[in-house]
Amino acid sequence: MQHIEANGYSVFFNEKGYTSLNHFISQRNYSNIFIISDTNSNENCLPKFLSLLETDKNNEIIEIEPGETEKNITTCVEIWSILTELGADRKSLLINIGGGVITDIGGFIASTFKRGIDFINIPTTLLAMVDASIGGKNGVDLGNLKNQIGVINVPKMVIIDTDFLSTLPQNEMRSGLAEMLKHGLIFDEKYWNEFKDLNQKDFADFDQLIHRSVEIKNEIVMQDPTENGIRKALNFGHTLGHAIESYFLENESKKTLLHGEAIAIGMILESFLSYEKELISREEYQEIKYVLKEIYPFIEFDKNDIEQIIKLLSFDKKNEYGKILFVLLDKIGNIKINQQINNESIFKAFEDYHL
């Protein structure tokens, strides 16, 4: 697959990625190389990566536990301390190999350690491949609040090896698929239509779908790297989706939702809000709702759940001047940003979700 040129870096695919990585490292005088990974990627993905890494530079592996609960400033402090103890300096290279938690936190650690060192992302989950590792957003959660602390800073390159997807359980694949579905809804109706019958797709098709998903995100980010305008489109489904994810993360009586599972619900709810504002037709809304509910498990919400989720909306990153702002669809393949919605409409969206 053809590599993709982004703002200041390139996204390489499969075998070409390792060739490009080895050439890149050989052309730069790094003092040493550090690899951040979690226990899952360390077991399933790191052996292949290390077998293809060609360098005489010393490399150290820093392993953390998997999961969103590790994406916090405490983990950062621990890794900054380890880097210091191991003699990392401003000429060190950090390679993040893992899912979205690893690329998010690894990019943040690299961007802030000694005021910034070079880093490379090697995403190993579908979610990280099509979303988290692309676009330069790096950061951590603040308590249960998603991505409240962070920076925008691009890696030196991203390598997407779809062979790593064979190690993922189905629920993790579905989680990443939510972002691909989102890319179609906000940018490319033809791409959205590709997902209406996933049973007809084979793995070769899926490689191309991943490539197109990365293209879409990159095209949006290239227009608006710092999210002052059109890049907000990528938050479709995330205003309510992140609030749902945070609520389930902090509530011990609830089963924790994967990112994509929460975002899928958010996309259904925000599609209803788009329909209610007459931005999409009833038929478009019903199509979106049907496709997403066929893929993702139904989650029950009671009145208290919804009230608590609405309270969490006040912490959304897109909010401005105390106003909660949504990204809504304006027909499939287009969006409207900075849309205000009242609580009554949100309750109606949840009510329709239950039907």
Would you give an account of this structure?
The longest helix is centred in the middle third of the chain and has 21 residues, at 203-223. With 355 residues, this protein is of the alpha/beta class. It is globular and about 60 Å long. The chain has 14 helices and 11 strands. It has 2 domains: 4-167, Rossmann fold; 170-353, Dehydroquinate synthase-like - alpha domain (Dehydroquinate synthase-like, alpha domain, Up-down Bundle). Strands 4-3-5-6 form a 4-stranded parallel sheet. It has a 3-stranded mixed sheet with strand order 1-2-9, with helices on both faces. Keywords: Cobalt, Lyase, Metal-binding, NAD, Nucleotide-binding, Zinc. It holds the Pfam family DHQ_synthase. Residues 176-319 form the 3-dehydroquinate synthase C-terminal domain. This is 3-dehydroquinate synthase. Its cofactor is NAD(+); Co(2+).
